[in-house]
Amino acid sequence: MPIHVEVVTQERKVFEEREADMIVVPGSEGEMGILPHHAPVLTTMGFGELIVRKGNAEERFVIYGGVVDVRPDKVVVLADLAESSFELDDATIEAARDRASKMMREGVPPEANREATLALRRAEMALKVKNKLKARGTSVLRIVSEGADD
User: Fold this and answer.
1) Rounded to an integer, what distance in angstroms lies between the CA atom of residue 14 and that of residue 135?
2) 96 and 58 within one domain
3) For residue 57, how many other CB atoms are within 10 A of its CB?
4) 63 - beta bridge partners?
């Protein structure tokens, strides 16, 4: 029996797959693998990579915090921010990283310090996931659902 997975943010539903084989979640205490019939769990997530596997295909996301609700037949990822690894752009990531690094070097008002630090962490995490995918080459197949809106 497969497991249903949804990845959502406050703005939108990022991804849904009704028949996933496995999900790997970046828990705040480390990665957590989830298979169908998993015991119910509600836990927080840190910054990291979320992986959804279905057969030989997988979908990867950069997750920037949130919570995950695991039930035996469904996993709901409520992410603070989430980006599909297939949508990550090197130039955009580098520009964000450079902006955040510059802000940290030049100093920012105390009220903007937290945001600058988070921006730098987000850019570095996105770059890490993008480089990991590049190193793997083209062996990753993307999950494509029938009738998906693109």
Assistant:
1) 25
2) no
3) 15
4) 48, 82
